Amino acid sequence: MYEMTGARAIIGLLERQGIDTIAGIPGGANLPLYDALRDSRTIRHVLCRHEQGAGFLAQGIARSTGQAAVCFATSGPGATNILTAIADAYLDSIPLVCITGQVPTSLIGTDAFQEVDIYGLSIPITKHNYLVRSADDLLRILPEAFTLALSGRPGPVLIDVPKDIQTATIRFARWPEPGCRREVPAADGEAIAQAARLIDAAERPILCLGGGIIHGGASDLARELAEKCSLPTTMTLMGLGAMPADHPLALGMLGMHAARSTNMALQECDLFIAAGARFDDRATGKLVEFCPGAGIVHMDIDASEVSKLKTATVGLVGDVRHTLAALLPLVRRRSRGAWRHTTAMLRRMYPMTLPEATVPERPYGLILKVAELLDEEAVVVTDVGKHQMWTAQVYPFSRPRQLLTSGGLGTMGFGLPTAIGAALAMPQRPVVLFTGDGSLQMNLQELATAVEQRANVKILVMNNRSLGLVRQQQRLFYNERHIACDFQLDVDFCTIARGYGIPSFNAPAGCDLDSLLRQVFAVPGPCLVNVLVGREEEVYPMVPPGAANSEMLGGFYAERCTC
Amino acid sequence: MLNDALAELSAEERGATLELTVNNHPGVMSHICGLFSRRAYNLEGIVCLPQGDGATSRMWLRVNENAKLQQVMRQVEKLPDVLALVHHPAEHEIFSLVGRFTA
Q1: Contact status, residue A199 vs residue A29, Cβ threshold 8 Å
Q2: Do residue A300 and residue A442 come from a single domain?
Q3: Burial code of A81-98, b = ≥16 C-beta within 10 A, e = fewer?
């Protein structure tokens, strides 16, 4: 018979779950939990400087490993601060278990000090959430939370634990089994056969790989399908890395900032095969004009995604890995010479970059130089903004989980704490963060965490002293009526970094970027490089928000385009 | 005649009922109602009663049949606290019984 406090039971359950790192910040309502954590021999706590940083640090662990990660926050402001990271995990389907302290049960509903209804607040941004009402329930709730976070479409789960539940004593005979991912079978066999017939019959099919391929560990099978059927393959932002960028069938990202050739090929296709992708508006543009005239095969583990936005000709609800495995033997090997010739010709006519844009002084040049110096072992993290889209456009991602980026929620401030989490989870891999001056300042305080944890994170600030994508939209769609996009203060990021004890470098125009970056990558531990980027450097091509993907503005050889 | 009259009613106006079996604890109602409110989809009526030993409840939701219904039903089915969902394409008689109190 075991006898212990609720707090000790929570820590024991997390240990048995295999959790070795927890990010968080203590406060009045979760002190018993921290007191119990002090006795843990296997869990390392990472003290962050803001709860949002703790949430993203846990995301960095979850996104880089595919395992559920844990974060702690206290009641009230601690809990509200962590909500953005939870919403971000929800939109990108990241398994996260967030444990918040709550005021004692007897004070709930009295507007007690630091009381906020975090259960109510987190309902629409979690897969499931709990307000623990009895300490005995912890033995059921903790394993269940991990099972839910990892199973089916992954996502965040929040457990709100009142302080008296943490201090209550419970007795039990046996520890429960740890929670684990429940297997989901392949889609219905008849539907798979129907999809195979559609694929065999299509003359101009395109395969689209989304984040679900990465969550489902299905990139190898997706690639087999593409190769067997000669399917030109595009990827969503969340799917980048599912097929290596240099693969002859890879078309890169689709949507708002895709290469012209990719969106043009999609206009021509007669069958769109979406695998683990959810037809996000940034990917599809104006939906009624997306892949006009194409049939849709939609594979997704979440039945509510199939035909949510675009009616599927065939919906394949199930685990995409099992579904692809069942589909592969049913499809015919085809070479599709004419269609592959068309897509190859489009790619030659409308390249993503030109030599003049890839010099080291320009954004693409910096990103490609970094890629040249790192191998596929490296983890690439981005923040949100122009630097994120430039990285998505040209970085040659070659494996799943190589890119960690905030896709659905687009959270500025995501990058630094997520990069730290990835560096702690994958100490053998170099982690490089592409960020902007706007994004970095949204969770700048986590520089302290990077130093304390000796996280091997190389921070590259693409500094245009503005909110670049806002500026670009004001220029293109608001007659250059700029407001609230240019920072008046030119922050000296190198001095800031030094204040935290982080080595830092300025990379002025014309500097020897190659030798500077080699020097930066050679030394382990955090380092910051500030690179000035012209305010006028825009992200092109760009589909205006709400417009069809065929209406691309700017970019190379735009004048050749008649659509 | 009846069919013609029904066809004249727009899809928006046709009533339907969702009958749910759910775990009975605080917060379940909030999870379900939230799926409607965040889609700007009104719940026209709710009847909810505990059943058996009180561990579960039966819930009837009166809604107007529209394009959002299928998506909401799929979301409802995903909630861990929802044990069963039945869609009645017409208004359930429980609402006419309860309706006596509002007459």
Answers
A1: no
A2: no
A3: bbbbbbbbbbbbbbbbbb
Q: What is the DSSP letter of A381?
A: E
Cα separation, A412 vs A421, whole angstroms: 16
Within 10 Å of residue A463's Cβ, how many Cβ atoms? 24
Q: A131 and chain B: CB distance < 8 Å anywhere?
A: yes
CA distance A308 to chain B (A): 7
Domain span at residue A497? 355-532
Q: Which residue of chain A has the CA closest to B76?
A: A304
| Residue contacts between A and B (CB atoms, under 8 Å) | 24
Interface test mutation site (partner B, options A91, A105, A108, A123, max chain B beta carbons within 10 A): A123
Helix (H, G, I), strand (E, B) or coil at B61: strand
Query: Which residues of chain A are within 8 Å of residue B27 when distances are taken between CB atoms?
Result: 119, 123, 129, 131
* A471 and A345 share one domain: no
Asked if A13 contacts A139 with a C-beta cutoff of 8 angstroms, the reply is: yes
CATH number, domain of A242, equals: 3.40.50.1220
Q: Where are the domains of chain B?
A: 15-99
Say yes or no for a CB contact (<8 Å) between A120 and B31: no
- SS3 assignment, position A92: coil
Length of chain B (residues)? 103
B66 has a chain A CB within 8 A of its CB: no
A303 in reach of chain B (CB within 8 A): yes
Give which of A412, A492, A499, A426 is closest to A457, Cα–Cα.
Answer: A426
pLDDT in tens, chain A (563 residues): 999 999 999 999 999 999 999 999 999 999 999 999 999 999 999 999 999 999 999 999 999 999 999 999 999 999 999 999 999 999 999 999 999 999 999 999 999 999 999 999 999 999 999 999 999 999 999 999 999 999 999 999 999 999 999 999 999 999 999 999 999 999 999 999 999 999 999 999 999 999 999 999 999 999 999 999 999 999 999 999 999 999 999 999 999 999 999 999 999 999 999 999 999 999 999 999 999 989 999 999 999 999 999 999 999 999 999 999 999 999 999 999 999 999 999 999 999 999 889 998 899 999 999 999 999 999 999 999 999 999 999 999 999 999 999 999 999 999 999 999 999 999 999 999 999 999 999 999 999 999 999 999 999 999 999 999 999 999 999 999 999 999 999 999 999 999 999 999 999 888 999 999 999 999 999 999 999 999 999 999 999 999 999 999 998 877 765 54
Q: Is residue A45 part of a domain?
A: yes
Domain's final residue, options A172, A207, A236: A172
Kindly provide the ipTM of the predicted complex, given to two decimals: 0.89
Give me the CATH number covering residue A87: 3.40.50.970
- Contact between chains at B31 and A304 (C-beta distance less than 8 A): no
In this complex, the residue of B26, B38, B80 whose CB is nearest that of residue A148 is: B80
Indicate whether A119 belongs to any domain. Answer: yes
The answer for A164, left when phi > 0, alpha when psi is -120 to 50, beta otherwise, is alpha
- Chain A residues inside the 8 Å CB shell of B31: 123
Cα A254–Cα A257–Cα A263 angle in degrees, nearest 5: 40
3-state secondary structure of A560: helix
- Shortest distance between the Cα of A122 and any Cα of chain B, in A, equals 10
- Total structural domains in chain A? 3
CATH class, domain B15-99, is alpha beta
Which residue in B30, B34, B71 is closest to A304 by CB distance?
B71
Tell me, yes or no, whether A184 lies in a domain.
Answer: no
